[in-house]
Amino acid sequence: MSTIKVDNLQTTGGASLYPARAWVNFNGQGTPAIRGSGNVSSLTDISTGKFGVNLSSVTTDANGAPCCVWANTAAVDVFNIASARHNSTSQFLMSSFSSGFLDPLYFSGILIR
Fold first, then answer.
1. Of the four listed, 9, 35, 85, 99, which is most buried by Cβ atoms within 10 Å?
2. Cα separation of 6 and 54, whole Å?
């Protein structure tokens, strides 16, 4: 397999591209279990509905833009926006809230930097 290393990504028109620094899809019920991920080493179960996503490779600062969604059913029309925060160079936080914090069956997050 080949590796491509660049400092900047651009379209052929010169516009900058900002790829995801990390992504994760996991089951948050019981013991959190990662279904799939990129640049994620593990999860921290902080408390009900609150998780830390630990990065395999750190970011240059904590100014990334994380976002996430959650659901308790596999139906594609019932996903909920969740709260996310890039709190350090090695982790971003995700939390789910409905009428209170809850551990969702499906939780997905991405970090753009």
1. 85
2. 24
Range of the domain at 53: 20-112
Whether pTM exceeds 0.90? no
* Measured distance CA(17)–CA(32) in Å, rounded: 32
The C-alpha atoms of residue 89 and residue 63 are separated, in whole angstroms, by 8
**Per-residue model confidence as pLDDT tens digits over 37-59:** 999 999 999 999 999 999 999 99
Asked whether residue 57 is domain-assigned, the answer is yes
R_g over Cα of the chain: 15
Residue 29 inside a domain? The answer is yes
Q: Are 32 and 25 in contact (CB under 8 A)?
A: no
- Is the pLDDT at 99 greater than 90? The verdict is no
